[in-house]
Design brief:
Blueprint lengths: L11 E8 L2 H10 L5 H4 L1 H6 L12 H13 L11 E10 L8 E14 L2 E12 L4 E11 L5
Antiparallel strand pairs: 1-3, 2-5, 3-4, 4-5
Length: about 150
């Protein structure tokens, strides 16, 4: 069953800022097996011109999860998460994310299309700093398997 079309194109701002922490960055980098000193060594990050530790690119997922889940798990959307598979994800940065950033997210379900009985949902999360300056955009696709899949 398709998701409620009234959700498509509507902005869903998440009101609580995500505060990027030094240890969150280090833990994330360790978990993905990336020893880049910019992700672990504050002095190295500062020598490279950053205010503090730099977050790995895929850290964007940690930033957007609460905002995205607020909508995707809303019963009114009508998404049967037991039938969902992850299609793709990409990150478009305006600047690096660094420790100490306070970031706000606005989530969108941009599109819904049916392909051979499966629903493809195009998702987007805009991430800005507290001054409203764009930091990154996270795009993703979820595939909701149809009843015969």
């Amino acid at each position: 069953m398709p998701v409620d079309p009234s959700f498509i194109g509507k902005p869903f701002p998440y009101p609580v800022p995500y505060v990027v922490g030094v240890e969150k960055i280090r833990d994330f980098a360790t978990a993905i097996g990336d020893a880049n000193p910019l992700y672990h060594d504050r002095d190295a990050a500062r020598r490279a011109g950053h205010a503090d530790l730099v977050a790995p690119p895929t850290f964007g997922v940690a930033i957007i999860t609460r905002a995205q889940d607020e909508v995707l798990f809303d019963p009114a959307l009508g998404l049967d998460y037991s039938r969902v598979v992850h299609g793709d994800q990409r990150f478009v940065f305006r600047r690096p994310v660094v420790a100490g950033d306070e970031l706000l997210c606005t989530f969108f379900v941009d599109s819904s299309r049916m392909v051979q009985g499966n629903e493809f949902l195009g998702l987007r999360t805009e991430v800005v700093d507290l001054a409203g300056a764009p930091v990154l955009t996270v795009y993703g696709t979820l595939v909701v398997r149809g009843p015969d899949a």
